[in-house]
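A quick aside before the break. I want you to see a complete sequence-to-structure record at least once, exactly as it would be stored in a machine-readable document. Don't worry about memorizing anything.
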Amino acid sequence: MRKLKAILGVLLLWFLCSTILRSCRANNLVCNEKEKRALLSFKHALLDPANQLSSWSIKEDCCGWRGVHCSNVTARVLKLELADMNLGGQISPALLELEFLDHLDLSSKDFRGSPIPSFLGSMGSLRYLDLSYAGFGGLVPHQLGNLSTLRHLDLGGYNRLYVENLGWISHLAFLKYLGMNRVDLHREVHWLESVSMFPSLSELHLSNCELDSNMTSSLGYDNFTSLTVLDLSENKINQEMPNWLFNLSSLAFLLLSENQFKGQIPESLGHFKYLEYVDLSSNSFHGPIPTSIGNLSSLRAFVLYDTGLNGTLPTSMGCLSNLMFLALGHDSLTGAVSEAHFTTLSKLESVQISETSLFFNVKSNWTPPFQLQYLLISSCKMGPKFPAWLQTQKSLSYLDFSRSGIEDTAPNWFWKFASYIDQIHLSNNRISGDLTQVVLNNTIIDLSSNWFSGRLPRLSPNVVLLNIANNSFSGPISPFMCQKMNGTSQLEVLDISINALSGELSDCWMHWQSLAHINIGSNNLSGKIPNSMGSLVGLKALSLHNNSFYGDVPSSLENCKVLGLINLSDNKFSGIIPRWIVERTTLMVIHLRSNKFNGIIPPQICQLSSLIVLDFADNSLSGEIPKCLNNFSAMAAGPIRGQYDIRYDALEADYDYESYMESLVLDIKGRESEYREILQYVRAIDLSSNNLSGSIPVEIFSLSGLQFLNLSRNHLTGRIPEKVGVMASLESLDLSRNHLSGEIPQSIINLTFLSHLDLSYNNFSGRIPSSTQLQSFDALDFFGNPELCGAPLLKNCTENEDPNPRDENGDGFERSWFYIGMATGFIVSFWGVCGALLCKRAWRHAYFKFLDNINDRVYLATVLKLSWLRYHFRRYRISK
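That is the input. The structure line, written in tokens, reads:
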């Protein structure tokens, strides 16, 4: 035994000495000169705007260069890890000189859609190749199949690569990780057979690859034996979940979201004993959640949002003792959510249940076994009582009870409890309470559309977003605006609109320097805009609509250089339109409707190329419409849905888990409509109810993206330009109550989206152009034009107006018989009913008894409604 210990001691000493010796040798070694030159050639082909490769100098040892890793024994280059560098340009073939390189990471670069170099397939020593999000495009080279020792391959990214045939991948026999997210694979019919040839494959990422329903292959039990991660999300797979999927016994992560999977989720889902993460959201399943989910003892995250499932929530869910994240909703699930569903869920940290018919039914004294950090129960029945169990959650950082059916007074403990929560969303309930003495300390606060009352609450400097719109707050606004804080305010969004606030705006805006979005519309405010509002240099949106402000718009607002939306409508502002407004090129929305502005429309307005909504209606503007409105390029091109534009930051403020959107009420198609989520897609010009004169500029009809045009109630003359037919997106056109003349242009029939048209009370003449669409409008839309004829007007066009007296509805003889038949039908129908009642006494009594019953019901409903209103009115007066 002693000899064995002695031998082991000698061997250990030899190992330590040899390690130290090798380390010492390595310290004296420098990188291979040939490899240094190759790396410098590689560097010269790259674009390095931030000079992040500054350490790559010929005077320095390349083993010490940033991102270069060498062998401790031979000093040969083994790894290039450049993932954290902002590089572009081209990849030099000089990399082939690095014959021992086994790890190449060029992810997160910008190679501007250039193809992946095929020579990379000749780097036979590579075991790790990461080209994800590197900006490559085009065909994936089949030469990559020559990298027979490769263990890790990631080609995913935003630029669309594509593959025509995946046969080359079968040569990568040792592959453990394959990432091809966003690589177009739809040309490869046998993609499943190609990627299932590797028993050693551990992770397969094929998200957003345009995959279809070719998942029905009969894979053997030996395929995918090591697979732990399967990501097929964001594809077009339209079939039931394949049977082979449930043979993947080692699977830990299953992501099938945003496909078109159908059928029921099999009970065999519960056989995955190692499964930790399941995301089946955004599919087309039906049937209930399988009860076997209670067997998923390793499950940590369960996401079933928008799956199409129905039925009740299985109580077996309460057995998922390791569950940390639960997301349900936007489905047809019904029934109660009770304590039984959370019995052993002590590790639960996040619950998201929204847009579902599920309702919470727990005891008032329930103490949950979990401590949540994130709680979202929105558009799901939680009330009517405020949940008392909420106060047991001491770790909560996010709370969303919006649209949860709560009709209760916020309990006294809530506001102290809530002061430790980062974000609070309680909108669209009927929660009441006086907030006069409350100090709000949260970063994001949305209490909009409730019954809160009292004076405006005080704020801590931490608040970034405050939305308390559509409540019953009252009293002067000055104490709120001029409140003193222990620190600099971080408030960026302030929405206190649709309340009963009064008084004038105090000159305290210099204390709110971080404000970017202000909405104090629809209150009882008055006075002038204070000059200090111009100190808000970061202001992006200003809404003061529907108040009683008056006077000139202060020139100090000219300092708001990034203003994108200004809404001063429905006030008493006067004077000329300030020149700075029409010269603020960042403006997208100008809404000055219903004020007392006079003078002309400044021609400088044509500089506003980003303008999408221009509303000067109901003022006293005069002069001609500027002829340069075709410079509104955002209206000429129209919106591109789904495409982000940084200019829209003025209409929306994004925060973690929260997005505040500006809203705008526009008079469209003769009725007021509120636009919020789709405001950025609206294109509208309204100059109605002014004193504008002259002709309609032909240039305005170059705005092919314009959707709503209203020039009514002015003194415009001349003709409608023939170019009107070019406005392909036009939905509403109102030129009524002007002095326009001439014929209606034939090209108007090209406006296929037109659903509202009013040309009444002008001096148009001739025949109304014939089209199914135009003749579907009401005759009132053309009324008041004595010389106008043709359908839908009853006035026929004479032979002098048209050589063919027949119109598309037939000649006058046929129309006469139409009216004769209509009159005869009315007489027969009328006397058929009334005559029977006169002749049949029993029928007559039954009919009048029916009317008496209806009368009694209406009377009873009216009395009950009035009693209800009187009761609530008295209750409201008592609470005041």
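Two observations worth writing down. The first strand starts at residue 46 and ends at 47. Residues 841-879 form the longest helix (39 residues). We'll return to this after the break.
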